[in-house]
Specification:
- The complex is a heterodimer of chains A (563) and B (199).
- With 563 residues, chain A is α/β, with parallel strands linked by helices.
- Helices cover 37% and strands 17% of the residues of chain A.
- Chain A has three domains: 176 residues, Rossmann fold; 161 residues, Rossmann fold (3-Layer(aba) Sandwich); 177 residues, 3-Layer(aba) Sandwich (Rossmann fold), CATH 3.40.50.
- Chain A contains 24 helices and 20 strands.
- In chain A, β15, α18 and β16 form a beta-alpha-beta unit.
- Chain A is globular, with a radius of gyration of 24 Å.
- Chain B has two domains: 84 residues, ACT domain (Alpha-Beta Plaits, 2-Layer Sandwich), CATH 3.30.70; 67 residues, Alpha-Beta Plaits (2-Layer Sandwich).
- In chain B, the strands form three sheets. In chain B, strands 5, 6, 7, 8 and 9 form a five-stranded antiparallel β-sheet that branches. In chain B, strands 2-3-1-4 form a four-stranded antiparallel β-sheet. A two-stranded antiparallel sheet of chain B has the order 10-11.
- In chain B, β6 and β7 form a beta hairpin.
- The chains are: A alpha/beta (563), B alpha+beta (199).
- Chains A and B meet through loops of A and β1, α2, α4 and β4 of B.
């Protein structure tokens, strides 16, 4: 039967019942009743961050790496608003997070009280769902419902706002009663209807030049084996999207790379030359599609997605298959014909030869590509890689040869600078034995570098590789290419000394300026038991190629003329 | 507005949870996707705890066509259906307060009879008429009443339901060229989608 507890206790018990063992957070006045009972729940490890954005990103990194729901705590007002960037990042990339925020007492809500923000109103567009809990007996059911919503279907962040006095009040909690979910409007697709499967199979079997466009859905639904089995059986080359990277082994002969704005040219060309694109857990993002009217005009399209609202959102498709990708691929495998398609496979191989997108221009100076290549070599593609957004992210996506499933964590949809520092902390928490390398730009690193203290405090051996060119490199690139070279606000002329910074945080710091020193430095960092910053001083103005400009098509492909 | 001319209107009905904040979620979604809510009618449904909405949404074709799917993503939305191309009946209600004098009152009342409007209030110098019907009918009456001096017009949004089926093997609101009566008699029946309730 139910126990009588305070709202704060109910929250902790409900979290434990959901299997939570780590919470990232930062306390404040309105959430103190929850922190006040934390000592009674030693199984619930609280990781104190330095800024609430770090809590949300760390929960995100934890969720992506573990497949579990990440949890963040923040107080009302500024604490809650600081979470928003992290929630939006998780929303865009379909990452399950439950954020619990304190709110001012019920009587004060709407009175512009100290540290009051309408956080459920503010986070409506960046959460999958959110709640303002106004009765203590709703705390338990709401938390269980929130976890259910966060992790099922298309995952996403859920925020629960709990007023201070609700956490202090006593109510009953009964797990068996409160875990009952009653959401008549909430559908969780699993297997797809047979007519959709048959329509898809027909196109696959009839196709001569099919290609997978495998997205984040492969990783979220853990459909690695199914994707590989179907690709091998029907000999379908696999292009992964940016977020689909590490969903298919990069040392596999059918792997083709990632397409789009800065993807490998041969991946974009393979999509363009195909007669069938099988979008598998990908949302045909604008960075892949560019100009909709010129995107892969000679191909039919199958779109497999768990979210019906993604169908025909950006690209009109011929067959839509609604379901959980792992289940859908499992349905397709027995029905797809075993094929060899030697001509098409040869054609794709030739594209790789004709468009060597991953050649590094040798100027004699250290470049970001050298660093990523070095990391890939030393770690043999086995590390977990976190990045933010920008040139460093694109080089990482291009040059790291991922061999482990789900080993690539980057802010894809929202493109959040600074994601790389705290997300690596969350990933290391989730995978204590794994080697976690955060590849950072010097810009993004400085947005969230206060979380290094969190890494040190929790003895997390995260390795940070700063690709330091004293520039917002992608901004420089765009200004040079599209704003007539009028570079503005792109240079950091007073970056801190990152080696001294590492030492100030109590970490190991190294600076590398020569190509030949890269791999040794990485080995040394790997051997160090604690967190490390390696400040890689790279070429100042280096563009990321290949490039298809925003809104462009394959006709606008720019390849590096130096190679 | 010139941008509005490219807009397409869709009639959508939805069954939603009857609780605070649900309409804000729906309105927020429409705003994010750049959809204009041209009309909206909300009321409790036949099922306890659930409300039914009818709205007319306007937006660029590619976006507005997706609105039902987007709405269904909301946890509190049980079901959303774009009924624009389904066989449905819809009505609006208008309350129109018209200025009258001793000379014009008879003419106003005569007009109301023609439109089958009800007189719901009458004062010294005004009459309030209640009219239900399609948008064109209400527009016409308002146009004709204009010269008497309209004091106030209050129109509800559109409310719509799918037409019941008369034929076997069909869902409500479905169009089919060849049909079979429910009682088993063969029958050829032709109907063009979008005739009733087209915007």
């Amino acid at each position: 039967m139910g126990k009588t507890l305070t709202g704060g206790d109910i929250a902790c018990e409900a979290l434990l019942n959901e299997g939570v063992d780590i919470v990232f957070g930062l306390p404040g006045g309105a959430i103190l009743p929850l922190y006040g009972v934390l000592s009674r729940y030693p199984q619930l490890r609280h990781v104190l961050v330095r800024h609430e954005q770090g809590a949300a990103h760390a929960a995100d990194g934890y969720a992506r790496a573990s497949g579990k729901v990440g949890v963040a705590f923040a107080t009302s007002g500024p604490g809650a608003t600081n979470l928003i960037t992290g929630l939006a990042t998780a929303m865009m990339d379909s990452v399950p997070i439950v954020a619990i925020t304190g709110q001012v007492g019920r009587a004060a809500i709407g009175s512009d009280a100290f540290q009051e923000t309408d956080i459920t109103g503010a986070t409506l567009p960046v959460t999958k769902h959110n709640y303002l809990v106004t009765r203590v007996e709703d705390v338990g059911p709401t938390i269980h419902e929130a976890f259910h919503i966060a992790r099922t279907g298309r995952p996403g962040p859920v925020l629960i706002d709990i007023p201070k006095d609700v956490m202090q009040e006593e109510g009953t909690y009964d797990y068996e009663r409160d875990r009952q979910i009653n959401l008549p409007g909430y559908q969780i697709p699993t297997t797809a209807p047979e007519d959709q499967i048959d329509a898809a199979v027909k196109l696959i079997n009839e196709s001569e030049r099919p290609v997978f466009l495998a997205g984040h859905g492969v990783i979220i639904s853990r459909a690695f084996d199914e994707l590989r089995e179907l690709a091998e059986k029907a000999q379908i080359p696999v292009v992964t999207t940016l977020l689909g990277i590490s969903g298919f082994p990069e040392n596999h002969p059918l792997h083709v790379g990632f397409p789009g704005m800065h993807g490998e040219a041969y991946a974009s060309l393979a999509l363009d030359d195909s007669d069938l694109i099988i979008g598998a857990g990908s949302r045909f993002d604008d960075r892949i599609v560019g100009n909709v009217n010129e995107f892969a005009t000679r191909s039919k399209k199958i779109h497999i997605d768990i979210d019906p609202a993604e169908i025909n959102k950006s690209v009109e498709v011929d067959v839509a298959v609604i379901g959980n990708l792992k289940h859908v691929l499992g349905q397709l495998i027995p029905k797809a014909e075993r094929k060899s398609r030697p001509e098409w496979i040869r054609h794709v191989e030739q594209l790789k030869i004709d468009h060597p997108s991953l050649h590094i221009p040798e100027t004699g100076n250290l470049s970001g590509q050298h660093v990523v290549r070095g990391l890939s070599n030393v770690t043999k593609g086995n590390a977990i890689i976190c990045t933010g957004v920008g040139q460093h992210q694109m080089w990482a996506a291009q040059h790291y040869k991922f061999t482990q499933p789900n080993s690539w964590l980057c802010s894809g949809g929202l493109g959040t600078m600074g994601y790389e520092v705290p997300s690596a902390i969350g990933a290391q928490m989730a995978m204590p034995e794994a080697l976690v390398w955060s590849i950072c730009g010097d810009g993004g690193f400085q947005m969230t570098m206060m979380e290094l203290a969190t890494a040190v405090e929790n003895r997390l051996p995260v390795k940070y590789a700063i690709l330091n060119n004293n520039h917002l490199g992608m901004i420089t690139q765009w200004q040079e290419l599209f704003y007539m070279g009028d570079t503005q606000a792109d240079a950091y002329t007073a970056n801190p000394d990152f080696v001294k910074l590492a030492e100030a945080f109590g970490m190991k710091g190294m600076r590398i300026e020569e190509i030949d020193d890269v791999e040794d430095a990485i080995e040394e960092a790997n051997a160090h038991p604690g967190p490390v910053i390696v400040d890689f001083v790279i070429e100042k103005v280096e563009h990321v190629y290949p490039m298809i400009p925003a809104g462009g098509s394959i006709k606008d492909l720019m390849e590096d003329t130096r190679v | 507005m010139t941008t509005q001319s490219k807009f397409e209107a869709r009639t959508v009905t939805a069954l939603v949870e009857d609780r605070p904040g649900v309409l804000a979620r729906i309105a927020g979604l429409c705003r994010r996707r750049g959809l204009n809510i041209a009309s909206l009618a909300v009321g409790r449904s036949e099922q306890p705890g659930l409300s039914r909405l009818t709205f007319v949404l306007e937006g660029p074709p590619g976006v507005v066509n997706q609105c039902a799917a987007q709405l269904e993503r909301l946890v509190n939305v049980i079901d959303a259906t774009d009924i624009t191309n389904k066989n449905h009946i819809w009505r609006e209600l208008a309350l129109v307060k018209v200025g009258t004098t001793a000379e014009t009152r008879v003419e106003v009342l005569e007009l109301s009879r023609v439109f089958r409007a009800n007189v719901v209030d009458i004062g010294v110098d005004s009459v309030t008429l209640e009219l239900t019907g399609g948008r064109e009918k209400i527009d016409s009456m308002i146009t004709l009443l204009d010269r008497f001096g309209i004091r106030e017009v209050m129109r509800t949004g559109r409310v719509a339901v799918l037409r019941a089926t008369l034929f076997e093997g069909e869902e409500d609101g479905q169009f089919q060229s060849s049909r079979k009566w429910v009682n088993g008699l063969p029958h050829e029946y032709h109907v063009t989608p979008g005739v009733s309730g087209s915007v």
